Amino acid sequence: MLSALHKRRRTFPAGSDLVYQGQVERSAYILVRGWVSSYKLLPRGTRQIVDFQIPGDFLGLRSILFRTADHSIEPVTSIEAIEVLASDLIDAFRESPRVATAVLWAASRDEAMGVEHLIDLGRRDALQRTAHFLLELGARLKLVGLGTVAGYACPLSQYHLADALGLSAVHVNRVLRQLREEGLLTFRSGRVIFDNFDGLVTLAEFDVSYLDQSGPLLK
After folding, report:
1. Closest by Cα among 142, 143, 144, 117 to 192
2. What is the pLDDT along the chain (219 residues), one digit of tens a residue?
3. CATH number at residue 7
4. pTM, two decimal places
5. Using an 8 Å Cβ cutoff, are 35 and 75 in contact?
6. Domain that holds residue 202
7. Are residues 89 and 135 in the same domain?
8. Residues 88 and 159 in one domain
């Protein structure tokens, strides 16, 4: 099965939707290289980014289980991804309980991140919200070898952050400037630098345990 999946490795340019909201008969993907955003487009044309995906993440897992896709998926950068059909998942679940467990873990972690993002929008102020979100991205990238406690490469614009955090781009700019002036974080030239990692964690009240992938089922 794995060899068959690797034959379906494809590349996509930035800005071209892999999956669009309301689409039927679509595939899911496993992201190999690049960054992707998942978003909902509202009737008045505004956009809410639900999350960003990084290498190793599933793209559109829900979309192949629902009748129609409930959100759109757009590459932030050029990407490489492996196409996954619903039949692939069913075969994998039948043949390998470990694969089924890994998919269940991925879905559960996405749900846990969704809870944190809901708290971001509902209870954290703009400074905490931004700090928490950038720390979460850093923790996820660290798990796949693309980030450290010093920081990480980040292709996102302030408009991406604004649509993810429920803020205006102007507000995001002010928040990033405040974080920089307080010596906590610098976001410049496509890189997030943790100037004071512990201080940022304290500000955001960030607890990485919801991203932990060392649960007993995966050992």
Report:
1. 142
2. 555 555 689 999 999 888 888 787 678 889 999 999 999 988 888 899 999 999 999 888 776 766 677 788 999 999 999 988 877 777 877 887 777 787 778 888 888 898 898 888 888 899 999 999 999 999 999 999 999 999 999 999 999 999 999 999 999 999 999 999 999 999 999 999 999 999 999 999 999 988 875 544 444
3. 2.60.120.10
4. 0.88
5. yes
6. 126-218
7. no
8. no
Q: Is residue 69 part of a domain?
A: yes
Whether the CB-CB separation of 41 and 47 falls below 8 Å is answered with yes
Count of beta carbons in the 10 Å neighbourhood of residue 148: 12
Which single residue is written with the structure tokens 């990084």? Answer: 54
- Contacts by residues 177-181 (CB-CB < 8 Å, ≥ 24 positions apart): 178/127, 179/127, 179/130, 179/131
